[in-house]
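Morning F.,

Quick status update on the modeling queue. The single chain you submitted on Monday has been processed. Sequence for confirmation:
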Amino acid sequence: GGSSEEEFSCGEIEVHEVDPRAEDRELKDQLLRKYSGYFSSLKQEFLKKKKKGKLPKEARQKLLEWWNVHYKWPYPSETDKVSLAESTGLDQKQINNWFINQRKRHWKPSEDMQFVVMDSLNPHGASFYMDGADC
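Structure tokens below.
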């Protein structure tokens, strides 16, 4: 009888060694080729989110000027927000957040204004304020 390869190699099976680092690099390269656009946009988002802190001084001054002129009712219209965004270089989300924070920290509506707000929330209008009246 003839001898098989196993007998010839003394029972050892030849194994091709694979470098796991080479496989990792290849996988990484494939993923980068496929998702590089997505990764770069994610990176931009993270860089934006990291960028926290004070708004530029000139932008704050313009927002405060608007605030001081409209102190009684500091709720800019959509047109005002667009105008403020253009003049300050901020985006609308920054404008909105600045006004929300400014109102929370520095604005107390007058008594008259509080009634106007309550009236808008109460569908029955003035009857809400009448003591002992039948509604």
